[in-house]
Amino acid sequence: MPQKIQMRLASNRVDTSVVINRDIPAIYTPGQIISNQNEFLRGHGTYEENGQLKASVAGVREKVDILISVRPLKSRYHGKVGDVVVGRIIEVQQKRWKVNTNSILDSVLLISSVNLPGGELRRRSAEDEHMMRKYLQEGDLISAEVQSVYSDGSLSLHTRSLKYGKLGQGVLVKVFPSLIKISKTHFHNLSIGVSLILGTNGFIWICPIINNTEENVGGFVQNLEEVVPKSIRATMARIRNCILALAQSKVMLFDSSITYAYEESTKYTLAELLLPEVMADVALSTQQKLILSETE
Amino acid sequence: MLILSSEKTDNPARIERTYYLISENIRIDGREREDYRPMEIETDVVSHAFGSSRLRLANTDVLVAVKIEVDAPYPERPLEGKLEFFVDCSANATPEFEGRGGEELAVELSNCLSSAYRSEEVFNLKKLCIMKGRKCWKLYVDILLLEVGGNLFDAVSIAVKAALWNTQIPKIKSINVDGSNIDIQVCDDIFSCTKLDVTGAPLMVTVCKIGDKCIVDPNAAEEQCSVGAVVVAVSRGNICTISQTGTGSFHPDTFKSCLILGISVAQRLEDSLTETLGEIKANQDVGFLK
Amino acid sequence: MPVDHKRINAPESAVPYKLFTKLNTESLKEQYQKAIRDGIRVDGRKPSEHRKIFLKTGIVAHAKGSAYIEQGNTKVVTSVFDPREIPNRTDYCLKGEIYCEFKFAPFSCPKRRLHQQDSQEKECSAIMKKALEAVVCREEFPNFQVDVYALVLHNDGSALSAAVTAAGVALASAGIPMFDIITSSTLAIQGEHSLFDPNFREELLSEIAIEKEHGVVILCVTSTHQQISHFHQTGNLQLNTITQSIDTLHNTCKEIVPVVQKCLVKSVLSVISES
User: Fold this and answer.
1) C54 in Cβ contact with C124 (< 8 Å)
2) Across the A/C interface, how many CB contacts are shorter than 8 Å?
3) Which chains form contacts with chain A, at 3 or more CB pairs under 8 Å?
């Protein structure tokens, strides 16, 4: 039996904010003076004028020693070396792929920074260059690590590890990069049978857990035949909706917040998770649970 | 699919597509094939218009305003008023609409709407006639796409119906004919207006074919993966327009099952819309800027 | 409405004189009863009878492929040109595209048509494009587009169907790789009358609500795969009527296929005999 179609009036809109009696830090707007003292280092989101430091984006101030930067809520991704990212191939060029990683400029993946099939220490021949579209095509998704940052801010990626490479069957969710909490690992195998890659660039990849890692040479082998069973699909859909609920209420995303949200969501059906009030409720109870576990 | 086929960054690869292929009755966001996403609607949002509405269906955002002007009827249809649809694909919705980018989609949408509203059984234009062959009301329905996140046809048709429901037509006090001059006196009282009869106004349902299964209310990613879609415009249980988007072909049996699905979903949409519009009270807060 | 300043247009308020003739004073119902009397149509056909089709290829010398179709009085010329790179396109696309332009000649209808495409012609172009893209092997010419032009010389109903059938022939004679032969047919419904391959008057009358159920249905079918490559309907019809009309139109489309095949074979044979 299909669900009733939900149509509501805009005046009955649900408030999705989950801020619970917490101090809201000072928020700076572009042009506002942050510091008059001369003792500072100019960080991201700021500029210097007449010896004063001013904000160039709207956001909160972050201070590390004398380095002052302003972090906005919404921004494109600022890459750092060693970050795990999820990206989509947008162009195949000579000797390199262009990748969209939600950063200010397109990132590149050089053919020399991927593990080609057939062993690690292989020379890249001209044939490989001709076969590039066979390895990765426009539209393919990859997980990768930031190898270096060019002077213009664009990123160079590499996939020289078995855990990186082309992604198989799954769902991509996009959130603001600032909502991803930096942690030791961004690859998570949840006990509910779902594997997560929390890309620091705000792209999250949800897929079923793959066991046969030894077959996975360089991550260019994909299994298109395998059909994802219904129960796993349902779990993946639930995780996806939970992440979107948390992102809507601006709750930080990391493994425990997602697991908590998943636990909180089990009292609702899958279809109900798309309703705004249910999404807000899931986010709110997750937030409370997180605060509880912090204080313990 | 629909339009954004060239949107580089969001073109799901084949491997993801195989995931979207729905063998089980469960979609990426957990919906079943016949489920709709929740939507939000409001009317009377534009004060300069005679009727207006705004609809938000997940990431799709549509604003519709109705303007009324006095015009002369078409010579071949002296007894009928006029109804015209204009779709504006604002570059706000997606940078692809910049310049003439959205023109093809706009033409497709407005053609589909005008052919759906063409039949007299669906929308009676004779009510818009003021004086035979001389004067009639002309309704301009302007549709502004503020954001495009899939399932445009459905969203637009619901918003248009709500805007027409909201439309008030001024009452005519008297008509003086003096040779070729026609003088129309309109009631000063802004509250004495007539409402349009929109019970037959069609709702469009896009039935999207992914793999060998059909789904309704596709999101942007699902639209990209689909090979083709049938747009069924339904008015009072009858079909008033069928059109296809995309380039795929259908087996006749699949096609027929799409039509049956379209009619049943349109009925459910109709019920929800009537119920929601019934809840609207006069002078209530509008949420557009809330 | 943008006005074409390069040409001298007819006065905009001009109206065809036929509106003032006696025919126009009759009610629509009377007009329709005249159009079909005792199950026989004005041109002596039965409701389910299709008009005779004349098809010829190679009538535009410059084009890569062309076809001329005559379906009763309806006359359409279609031509196909060499694939060329898609203009104003920067990214790579895996499948080729088909560009269609459907145009009524200014003198083809009772009312004069302007030189610029109006919204009806744009809609017809879009329908043609979708119908043809389903039968052409588009992955054989990635990043390229094929131009297809259809010009209606005389519109006596079912012009779009005739154009689609002819465009299929033109594509085939141009040597564009295709999965299948495409044929198309139109049906005009008013109450319990279903008229196949309607002429202009029947088409016009079926678009107006005289009975509760009325409408025009266009079906484009690929012959061997038995797939609907495009379906278009307007008016107000019940589901049953539509499903029935799909079946009957499908049969009509099948009947056109031999004509198309014969025409293609003939065009090849004529080339052989010339050489």
Assistant:
1) no
2) 5
3) B, C
Tally of CB atoms within 10 A around C1: 6
Q: Predicted ipTM?
A: 0.84
Report whether pLDDT(C222) > 80.
yes
Q: What is the pLDDT of residues B59-84, one digit of tens each?
A: 889 999 999 998 888 887 888 899 99
Given a cut of 80, whether residue A283 has pLDDT beyond it is: yes
Average model confidence (pLDDT) across chain B:
83
Superfamily of B12-278 according to CATH: GHMP Kinase, N-terminal domain (3.30.230.70)
Assigned token pair, A114: 């991927």
B-facing residues of C in 60-119 (CB < 8 A) are 89, 91, 93, 119
pLDDT tens-digit series, residues B80-110: 899 999 998 878 777 777 777 788 888 889 9
C51-269 sits in which CATH class? alpha beta
Q: Does A133 touch chain C (CB under 8 A)?
A: no
Burial of C179: CB neighbours in 10 Å, binned 0-12, 13-18, 19+: middle
Instruction: Identify the CATH assignment for A27-71 out of 1.10.3720.10, 2.40.50.100, 3.40.50.720, 2.30.42.10.
Output: 2.40.50.100
Q: Given 3.40.50.150, 3.20.20.70, 2.40.50.140, 3.40.640.10, which CATH number is that of A74-227?
A: 2.40.50.140
Q: How far is CA C254 from CA C225, C228, C249, in A?
A: 11, 12, 9
C222 touching B (Cβ < 8 Å): yes
Chain A residues whose CB is inside 8 A of the B288 CB are 10
Q: For an interface test with C, which of A89, A94, A137, A138 has the most C Cβ atoms less than 10 Å from its Cβ? A: A138
CA neighbor of C228 nearest in space, from C197, C160, C169, C182: C182
Q: Indicate whether this model's pTM tops 0.95.
A: no
